[in-house]
Amino acid sequence: MKEKYKYINQKNYKLNVKWILPIFIFIAILSVFAFRYIKTLTYKNIYKTISELGKQTATQLNSSIEEQKKFVETAVDSINRGYFKTESEIFDNFADDLENYHFTRFAILDREGNGITSDGYTVKDYPVTDDYFNFDDVYLSENRKSTISDVQINIYSKAFKINGEEKVLFATVYTKDYKEILLRRLYNGLGGTYLINNDGTVLIDSFDAIKENNVNLYSFIINKHNATDDKSLDKINQIKDDIENKKNGTFDITFKDNDTYFGHYENIGINDWYVINIVPATAMADELNHFIAITLGVCIAVNLIIIVICVYIDISNQMKNRKLYKAAYVDSVTLLGNENYFKENSKIFLNSLKENKYIISLDVNKFKVFNSLYGYEFCNKLLNILGEKIKTGIPKNNITCRMHNDVFAILLEYDKDIEKVLEKLHNDTAVINVDNIPIHLNISMGVYKLKKSDTDINKVLDKAYIAREQIKGTYGEYYYMFDEALEKALIEDENLETSMESALKNREFKVIYQPKFSTVDEKIAGAESLVRWYKDGKVIMPNNFIPLFEKNKFILKLDLYIFEQVCKDLAEWKEKYNADLRVSVNVSKEHFTNENFIDEYVKIVEKYNVDRNNLELEITESATIDKNIDVVKIANKIKDCGFRISLDDFGTGYSSLAMLQELPIDVIKIDKVFVDKADYKSDKNIINYMVLIAKQLRTDIVVEGVETKEQADFIKALKCDMIQGYYYSKPIEKEAIEEYFTKETIS
Ligand code: C2E
Ligand code: CA
Ligand code: CA
After folding, report:
1. 675 lines ligand 1 (CB under 6 A)
2. Within a domain: 188
3. Residue range 117-128, pLDDT digits in tens
4. pTM (2 d.p.)
5. Which ligand is nearest to the CA of 650?
6. Which whole-number Å values give the CA distances from 2 to 192, 321, 348, 411, 413, in the listed order?
């Protein structure tokens, strides 16, 4: 049962995990895409780098070969022009250029391959093919072994005529010189470059992995990486095709052993030779890792930011709800639930099938006194501690709330002796320390044991409340269990309630009048109108129905009805007896919640054309201390409409002198209790002080409830203006009042 109640003072905010998971998944998917995207970007970047490198290498190689070609071209040109007579003249002339152009040596041979070199060797039967013996262009051979020094060389050649003979100029270079250009270390030396011819034959291998001559690069790669799978073969064939078709390109290839390589092939523009750069992906690891790190970092950051934002939104929503909830359901003084909370959460409690359920209405006796003694703030602390003591002092299965002021309500489930719980509550709250001041409290509790048929929280609250009302003023009693007698009274109230409307129509409510007598000449000086209910041949006294009618607001109708009867009587008396009797009429404070209530009274007076100075509206002193009523405003309105005002039950309502001074009152009615208590022998009587106050306020004084001659004499001696009491007259019928008119005994 307990866990179903809404939280009241929960301090931590709960994270809603429900939506975190979908967001997480969403972001994870997003991350995968981001990752892929960044991978593509990385590949593009690598492709760009490697293809630029390839182009650079190709250009460099091209320009250094072109330079050498050009030299051979110009040298042959000058020979053809007949500048030289002999081979040695030629060699002498170009001796310096050997070094400048990085040639190893020159040679001049005839068609049969016989001749001499610039460094003095004699060459015999060198296989001079037609490729070499070219009159139009400079030819560059592929690598071959030098016949002189057993190293790999390349030969530039161009044919010419000297002294009528056809000869050819050879200019040889070390192949390793080209290698140096290719060796520009790629990626910390992990990459490398091949120079291949159009068929794929490796001319230069900067990796130094190939030891033999005339190795085919494609077969070499296939063998080395065991690249017999279709995917690898496809890629290799693609490269082969491109090179055969003189295209350039970039590739990445992943072999069976999961080694990935990036590469680029570029035609160098001479002999259709290609440089082909190859870099293992591991060499790119830095770059790749960098990108992966960035991707991961960005993903995690985005993830975190989104989650933080969501959490923030969620918590601020919860805070907002919590605030709204608190405003609606939490009592700010005690931090317990308030009346709304109590009523809303009671449903579960009422519907539970448990046997022993109780509702307790609890308040502090004379709490108002503490308020005026210690002030508002102090009393709020007091209520806070009291609330805590109540909540923690009773068995756990409970709903404890502060309803208003010092009134608490408790719903409790308890299988043992409930009276023990009540006794404990009484003892726990007997002394409460507030700011180190021990405050002695007496609490009153009304208790009602719930029945299965009880489903309306308001009804059971009423029962507990009514039970509590029974203790008021009974010394030493602190709880009252709702019993048969109260049940009966409640049923009685329900009966009255169901018949009140029809009773009004059937004129069951009648006015009687209690005369007031002048203390000067003991003649009748006024009267108070009082209501009686003649129901089924019996008279019901107002104390039995007025509180009920105040609760259900029927009093608003009844008061106006009585007022109208009084006005009717006054008009009749004026006409019949030309009598002017001042009559006071009780006006319940329930009227005062509506500022315009007086308009209805005015309408009635106008209808019967009665002198308003003969009408006095009695308002009770308790109305003047009700915080919800602006009694000064109301009283001024009444006065403005021409009615007199008397303050009823004076002395019982604790109103302040300051407040009384603001009220435009004509009469003060001293309550019967003060007459009963009066010690006639002492002049230190409360009535003495009341008379002093009234004199100060310049109001008339009526003393109520005077029953004996002794009391009457005492009051007369105090110079009060009027006496209303059984000693002179009980409330009497209209006709009995009329007798006073005929006797002409009006004061
Ligand atoms: P209240 O306004 O204080 O009226 C005076 C009550 O004291 C009357 O009781 C009256 O009969 C009683 N009383 C007067 N002199 C004596 C006395 O010497 N000894 C004793 N023991 N009692 C005396 P009642 O008529 O029973 O009315 C009770 C209360 O009901 C009234 O107290 C008033 O508050 C309320 N009431 C009566 N009629 C109306 C009404 O028309 N409208 C409203 N709103 N309240 C009314
Ligand atoms: Ca009265
Ligand atoms: Ca009174």
Report:
1. no
2. yes
3. 999 899 999 999
4. 0.54
5. 3
6. 78, 22, 9, 12, 11
